[in-house]
Structure formats: structure tokens, C-alpha cells
Design goal:
Largest sheet: 5 strands, antiparallel
Number of strands: 7
Strand content: 5-15%
Helix content: 55-70%
Mean pLDDT: 77
CATH topology of the largest domain: ABC transporter involved in vitamin B12 uptake, BtuC
Number of domains: 2
Distance between the termini: 33 Å
CATH class of the largest domain: Mainly Alpha
CATH architecture of the largest domain: Orthogonal Bundle
Shape: elongated
Length: 472
């Protein structure tokens, strides 16, 4: 457990560091956007380098420097630089305020700065006119074959969804590996986590606008919202285990003879019906409590990471953070199941429940902890989806849960590593299809691929290999 705790601390530290690094990329986008207004119309701008600056003396303003070449119409290229100073970045995108601009020709006047911030930067066409990476910047990037460009770009864009699929597939595998039954309501628990995370972030933004305290830094706001989303979904999972799954399992254990007494001996129809009912009821509940509001983009400034012919391959910091965080949580889960006392109890109940009970392992307690952990993972996956796309609709969890179930079954729903690998495989297949074929047919192709996989290998990639019927 000490190793798990140390690994968790490392993951959290990496998460906070990555969030703080967003300041430079977002400020660079704003500073690039104002370059055209500093020169005559038609000037060709070629950015050479972007670097951070030390804070101005006497205040907390932070800034950056952009070096570039500018060629006005009918003139030669000239080397220039621009220094942009900002307020410290808050969680809301509206708090990235440009406070001062200094060029190689001197300070930009206060009146000109007001015009730039209030009118020029708010114009939708400004983003299209902002210069992208210059020749010198592109020369330092990797150059890939042209045929790899679209696939790599779609793969990077789907990194958050790949992490979501892997976590939800692991949730299915945790419960199925223990009791041999599928909980269809994980999509609803993901929606609960997403809505809880969104409401938490909205509340933190409201506190900052009311000037209560000194405000919440972006990294801590995201971390706090993630903890709230995971905790709330886990609490709902504990209620599911205590009020729904526990009574059904306990009744079947009592009804069977001692020789048949196991968590796998009962029919799965009551559990399927109960969880299907939850899958219908939870979105209706969320529809009553959810407000149609959208989060401001978080860590969403794209950065060019490679070039394939004329295609510039970009990725956002949040996509990388989400993928690394998801894989870290998945590794923590695998380590927990392998090294902890709970993991040993889970394996004992999954392999031989009767023998485990003779050694004092409570099957109902293990079931409760398993469902709570699985629902917490689903809530964290929903939070990732919510922050990536701005919010999570009350009905989004249904399709998300079904596609994650496809990933779990494809990887081997009885195997935790297999289910996670199935989530990664699903993300890769979606990227391949999106890069080469009509995207509107992608989901149909994914489900058809599942049918073919079940025909050729019923147990999935890491599941059983025979044609025995799968317990659901």
C-alpha cells in the first residue's frame, strides 16, 4: 500500500505541473493574435521563437516574448519582437487578461491596448488571422510521412476518449470478474460524475467572481472537481451495492444449497433488469437537476507537435494530461488488485467463493467495495468527458456505457488488463476509421467488429477461448 500511495502522489504532482504549464500556451495564442494589428495590413509574419519572461518588478504580471520576421507589402523582411504581459491565469478563460504590450518600437499606448483587448481580440476573425508556427519553429519539429498525418492527428484527438473507454471497461471487468454478471448502469454513473464535476467547477468560478478569498488556481480547481466527481459516483455505487445488488445476491445465496452456494450460482436476470432500470432512471434524475451550461475551455490551446507534408499535427495539453492520468489510474488499479489485501480477497471470491468464506472473507463486503470502486472509476471517466467537451448531457452516459461495454467484451470482460486493452483498442479503431472512412458510419463499424470478434474468439483478447456461453 505504501507503493500505491507514493505512485498516487507522483501522479497528482505530474497533474498539477501539467496544469500550470498551460499558462504559456494560452498566453502565446493571445500574443500571436495581436501581431497583425501592430503592423500595416498585408504584412507577412514569420514567428521565430516564443519564450517566457520574468515577472515585471513591483507587480505580479507574467509575460512572454515573441521574436518574428515581418515583411510589409513592398518592403524587406525586418526582425521584430513583442513582449506581452498578463494577469496570472485563473480557471476561467475570461481571466486571461492582457495588461501591457511592449514592442521593439516602444510601449503600446493604453488607448491602443483597450482597443486591442475589447474589440480586436473579441472579433471571431482574429483567430483566423493569427500567425501560426513560423518556418524556424516548424523546422525543429519531426517531419512524418504524409500517409501517417491524418491517423496520428485523429489518434491524438481521441486520446481523452481512449482513457474514458479504458476506465469504464475496467469498471465492467471489476464487477463481472467477481460475480459473473454485467452491470448495465455504469454509463449512468459516468454521467453522475460528469455532472458533479461540472457543478463543482461552476461553483468555484462563482466564488472567484464574488471575490471570496483569493481565488482557486486552475490545477487545484480541476483536482478538487475530480475528487468530488469520483467520490459522489462512488457513494452512489455503495448505495447500489447495499440496496440493489447486495439483497439480490444474498437472497440467491440463501436459496441455494451449500454445495451450490457461490456468487456465480444464481441467474443473472434480476441483476440485468435492476441495472437496466437504473440506466433508465439515472438519466431522468440528472435531467431534473442538470442546468444547460457549458464550461470554459480548459488547457485547450493546441500545440503543433509534428508536420506531415502540409498538415500540422496538433494536440492540446488537456488531451495529454487526460490520457496520462487515465493510464496512471489504470496502473494504480492493477497494482491495487495485485498487491493489496482487497485485491487478494477479490481474487479469492472470484475463484472460489465458498472456500473464501470458510477463511473468513465476507463476500458481501467484497462485493460492496468492488461496486464502490467500479462506480468511482466510472465517475472519474465521466469527469474527464465533461471537462474535455464542456459538459456531459444526462443521456450521454448511455451510448458511452454501451461503447465501453463493447471494449470490455472485446478485451475479455473477465480480465481486468484485457478490458483496459479493449478500451485502448477501441480508441485506435475509431482513429483509424475517422482518418480514412466516413465518420458517420464509425459506430456501426465498431459494433460490427465486435460481432466478428465474438465469432472468432468468444472470450475476447484475454478471456476464455472456448465456445462456452458467457454468463451475463
Amino acid at each position: 500500500m505504501n507503493r500505491i500511495a507514493r505512485l498516487f502522489v507522483i501522479v497528482v504532482a505530474a497533474f498539477l505541473t501539467a496544469c500550470v504549464s498551460e499558462t504559456d500556451s494560452e498566453q502565446a495564442r493571445i500574443c500571436r493574435a495581436i501581431l497583425p494589428v501592430l503592423h500595416p495590413g498585408g504584412t507577412v509574419i514569420d514567428v521565430s521563437a516564443v519564450g517566457a519572461l520574468d515577472p515585471l518588478e513591483g507587480n505580479a504580471l507574467v509575460g512572454l516574448r515573441i521574436d518574428y520576421l515581418a515583411k510589409p507589402p513592398g518592403r524587406r523582411h525586418g526582425a521584430h519582437y513583442t513582449l506581452c504581459y498578463f494577469d496570472p491565469v485563473g480557471f476561467s478563460a475570461s481571466e486571461r487578461v492582457l495588461r501591457a504590450v511592449i514592442t521593439d518600437r516602444g510601449h503600446v499606448s493604453e488607448a491602443a491596448l483597450i482597443f486591442i483587448t475589447r474589440y480586436y481580440l473579441t472579433d471571431p476573425e482574429t483567430a483566423a488571422e493569427a500567425p501560426g508556427p513560423g518556418t524556424a519553429e516548424l523546422a525543429r519539429l519531426p517531419h512524418l510521412p504524409e500517409f501517417l498525418g491524418p491517423f496520428l492527428q485523429h489518434s491524438l484527438a481521441l486520446l481523452p476518449m481512449t482513457g474514458v473507454y479504458a476506465l469504464l471497461a475496467a469498471s465492467y471487468a471489476l464487477v463481472y470478474g467477481l460475480i459473473g454478471r454485467i452491470n448495465l448502469a455504469f454509463g449512468g454513473f459516468a454521467a453522475i460524475g460528469g455532472v458533479a464535476g461540472a457543478l463543482t467547477l461552476f461553483g468555484l468560478q462563482a466564488i472567484r467572481r464574488l471575490e471570496i478569498g483569493s481565488g482557486v488556481p486552475p490545477a487545484l480547481a480541476l483536482l478538487f472537481a475530480a475528487v468530488i466527481a469520483l467520490t459522489l459516483a462512488a457513494c452512489w455505487g455503495e448505495a447500489l451495492a447495499a440496496l440493489v445488488l447486495g439483497p439480490l445476491m444474498r437472497r440467491d445465496l440463501i436459496d441455494h444449497t451449500v454445495g451450490e452456494r457461490s456468487m456465480r450460482a444464481h441467474t443473472g436476470q434480476p441483476i440485468l433488469i435492476a441495472t437496466a432500470g437504473l440506466l433508465i432512471a439515472l438519466p431522468e434524475f440528472l435531467a431534473l437537476v442538470q442546468q444547460p451550461r457549458w464550461l470554459a475551455p480548459v488547457l485547450s490551446t493546441p500545440s503543433v507537435v509534428a508536420v506531415a507534408n502540409t498538415l500540422q499535427i496538433t494536440v492540446t495539453p488537456f488531451s495529454l494530461i487526460v490520457f496520462v492520468s487515465s493510464m496512471s489510474v489504470a496502473l494504480l488499479l492493477l497494482l491495487l488488485m495485485k498487491r493489496s489485501r482487497f485485491g487478494r480477497a477479490w481474487r479469492a471470491c472470484a475463484d472460489d467463493p465458498l472456500t473464501a468464506s470458510l477463511f473468513g472473507v465476507s463476500q458481501m463486503r467484497v462485493l460492496g467495495l468492488t461496486v464502490t470502486l467500479a462506480c468511482g472509476l466510472a465517475g472519474f471517466a465521466g469527469f474527464i468527458f465533461c471537462v474535455q467537451y464542456g459538459n456531459m448531457g444526462y443521456s450521454d452516459g448511455r451510448l458511452l456505457g454501451m461503447k465501453a461495454l463493447v471494449a470490455a467484451v472485446a478485451g475479455g470482460i473477465g480480465s481486468l488488463p484485457g478490458a483496459m486493452l479493449g478500451g485502448l483498442t477501441l480508441g485506435i479503431l475509431e482513429a483509424l476509421w475517422s482518418a480514412n472512412l466516413p465518420i458517420e458510419s464509425r459506430d456501426i463499424a465498431i459494433f460490427c467488429a465486435l460481432v466478428a470478434l465474438l465469432v472468432l474468439r468468444p472470450g475476447g483478447l484475454f478471456g476464455f477461448g472456448d465456445l462456452a456461453p458467457r454468463r451475463v
